[in-house]
Amino acid sequence: MMDNMININISKVNYLKEVFKMIDKGNKNFWDRFAKLYAPFMKKDQGVYDEVCEYILPYLKKDMDVLELACGSGQFSFALSKKTKSWIGTDFSEQMIIEAKKRGEYENLIFETADATDLSYANEKFDCVLIANALHIMPNPECAMKEIYRVLKPNGTLLAPNFLWTEGKERKIIKTLMSVLGFKMYQEWNKNQFEDFVEKHGFSVVEIKLVYGGLAPIGVMIAQKYS
C-alpha cells in the first residue's frame, strides 16, 4: 500500500515538474502565470479534496457569512458556498481570481483580489474564515492569522486544512522532489505543531483530522475564535 502511495505522489510531482517547465520560476508573478494550469492540476487529487469537504461541511450553516483566503481558482468555493448565506473568495493573485470568475459566480458567491496578511474588511465581519493549503507557503503566516482573528466574529469558526509535510513515512521522498523543483515551503508543521500554531493566535482547536492521498497528508483544522 505504501508503495502505491509513493507511486501516486511521484506521478503528481512529475506532473508538477512539467508545469514548472512552462513557467518562469524566477518571476515574482508566479501564481498569476500558474493560474490557468491550477484547476486541472488540482483535479488529480479531487478525491482527497472531496474528503476534506466532507469534514468541513458540518461546520457550515445557512446563516453564515464566509470569507475564503487563498481561494485559487475556486476549488473549495464552488463546492462549499451553496451551504452558506454569503461567500467571498479571495486570492492575492489577480489572475487566479480571473480564472475563478470564468467558472461562474452564484448569487451568494463572489470573488475578489485580497492579501490575506492585509485585509480591508471590517473587524468581526465574518462568521467563518476558510484558508486552505496556504499558511505553510507564507513567509509570515502569523500576519494572516492576526487578520483572520480580526475579521472573525466572537466564537467565529476557522477552517484551515493544511499540508502537514512532516507527517507520513514517504515525506522525505516528496520533500526532496519538491525541493529539486524549487517549491518553497516556509513552514513544515506536524499535527501537534500546527495545533500549537493555531492556538497561539487566539483559537481553540475543535478537531483536526488527517486526510491522506495527495502530495502530503492534509490536516483538516477546525478551530474557534476565543470570544
TrEMBL record:
<keyword id="KW-0489">Methyltransferase</keyword>
<dbReference type="InterPro" id="IPR025714">
    <property type="entry name" value="Methyltranfer_dom"/>
</dbReference>
<protein>
    <submittedName>
        <fullName>Methyltransferase domain protein</fullName>
    </submittedName>
</protein>
<dbReference type="InterPro" id="IPR029063">
    <property type="entry name" value="SAM-dependent_MTases_sf"/>
</dbReference>
<dbReference type="GO" id="GO:0032259">
    <property type="term" value="P:methylation"/>
</dbReference>
<dbReference type="Pfam" id="PF13847">
    <property type="entry name" value="Methyltransf_31"/>
</dbReference>
<feature type="domain" description="Methyltransferase">
    <location>
        <begin position="61"/>
        <end position="164"/>
    </location>
</feature>
<keyword id="KW-0808">Transferase</keyword>
<dbReference type="GO" id="GO:0008168">
    <property type="term" value="F:methyltransferase activity"/>
</dbReference>
